[in-house]
Write a structure and sequence with these properties.
2 copies of one chain form a homodimer. By secondary structure, chain A is of the alpha+beta class. Chain A contains 6 helices and 3 strands. The mean pLDDT of chain A is 95. Chains A and B meet through helix 1 and helix 6 of A and helix 1 and helix 6 of B. Chain A binds a DNA duplex through helix 4.
Chain lengths: 98, 98
DNA sequence: CCTATGGTTCGATTTGATTCGAACCATATC
DNA sequence: GATATGGTTCGAATCAAATCGAACCATAGG
């Protein structure tokens, strides 16, 4: 398994962020992580098939929405609030509260 | 031709806004209208076929991004900045500046 | 080593959005 | 009325994203 690639803060693109958030499942993931908690993938989307879920994890990670961390067999996800707030102030709150 | 239907401020939905903005052509339209100017459709997208352009006009209007006004043969468009800023503070600036 | 669990990858299918041409509608001008 | 212009609507084609099963990889625990 290759290393998890995340764009750095300066590499965040609004087009990518919009694309990542324009999906009901991924929007729900963002709202689930809104309180800053770090959760495993299975905790967030237990009902979805593994391959579909994995697809969404990748979109969220590569487009800079979440940071993923491997620990043992689990993959933990955390919302990149600081980075997103710094680059696109207000955006994340609008999405979460909206 | 039926009347142009716009959602009111309270009817703006973040999911719809994200879907409307997640397209390069529509993102360009928003940025073109960013200074508050009111422009005709043909001024904004002169190169695109009428039917494709009309499709994007409808998405932008129905999802609350722009207000459209008919005058004579022309359709004028204006960014709904006040409404979008009120409902989703920071969102529009992030998209325009991003 | 063996087994179970958590995720990824691949290929194929399905679904939804975009695109376009053609026909049409509405308004302005002659 | 005739003609030109600005947009809409419809249906069909095209293209991208989402979905899924199956096979695979990695780690934890016996």
């Amino acid at each position: 398994m290759e290393e998890l690639e995340h764009p750095d803060r300066a590499g965040l693109r609004i087009e990518a962020v919009l694309a990542a958030l324009d999906h009901p499942v991924r929007l729900r993931v963002v709202r689930t992580l809104a309180d800053g908690e770090e959760l495993t993938c299975r905790q967030i989307l237990p009902e979805m098939t593994k391959s579909s879920a994995s697809h969404h994890w990748r979109v969220l990670r590569e487009n800079g929405i979440v940071e993923q961390r491997k620990q043992g067999r689990n993959l933990y996800m955390r919302l990149r609030r600081a980075d997103l707030d710094a680059r696109f102030p207000g955006m994340l709150d609008a999405v979460i509260d909206g």
